[in-house]
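Entry for the shared binder. Reason: the reviewer on the internal report wants the predicted structure included alongside the sequence.
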Amino acid sequence: GHEIQDLIGNLSFAEMVWLMLRGTAPKAGEARLLEAALVASVDHGPQAPSIAAARMAVTCGLGLNGAMGTAVHMLDDVHGGAGQQFVSLLYDLQGMPAMNGTGLADYLSRYRHDVSPYIPGFGHRFHKPVDPRAPRLMVLVEDAQEAGLVSGNYKTLALQIEAELARMKGKPVPMNIDGASAVIYAELGFAPEQARGLFCLSRSVGAMAHGYEQMQQGGRNKGPTPPHYRWRYDEG
C-alpha cells in the first residue's frame, strides 16, 4: 500500500522489515526493540556451525551469496531454531490459566519428556554463567514495557521459567540469546515462524562478514579440522 520511492530515505531497515511482515509501519520504539534483537543475533564467532560452514564454502569456490545460503540452510531445529520454539512455548503457556509454581513445573517436565530434553532458549555451551546478550535485551524490554509499547507478560513468563529451571536443575540455567530475542519477538507479536526467519536474516549478516573475511585470507578446501590433525583408521 506504499509507493517504494516514498519509503526510501523515510523508513529504516528495521521499520521496512516490520512493514513487510506485519503490513503496517511500527511505532518508533517497536522498531528500535526489533532492531536490538536483530543486532544481538548477528554474530557469535567462527565456531558457530553455520558460520564455519560459510567460511568453508568460500574456500570451495562459492561467492558471498553461496556462503550466506550455506549458513542459512543450516539454521534449523537444532542450530538456529530455538527462537521459534521458545516463541511457540511462550504463546502456549500464555494461553493457560495460572501458569506458575506447580503448573509451570509440570508443563516443563512434560515438555522435556514429550518434546525435547532441552528447554529452548536457556543455557549455553560457551557463555557461563550468563550469556551477556540476554540481560541487555531484557533491560530494553523493561524500558519498552515502561513506555507502554509492550505488555511485559512474556518477559515475566520467561524469567519464571528461568527460575524454575534453576530449581529443577539445582543450578542456574540462564536465558541465552535465543530466549531473549524470542521474548522480544513474542512481546512484539511476531509469529513463531517469523522468529526463525528474523534470526536467519540477522545471522546472514554475520555469514556475509565471515565469508568476506575468508575471501581476504584465501585458502582452498578449508575443512572442519586443522591441517595437522588427520584421522588414522584401525585395522580390522
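Summary line for the report: DSSP finds eleven helices and no strands in the chain.
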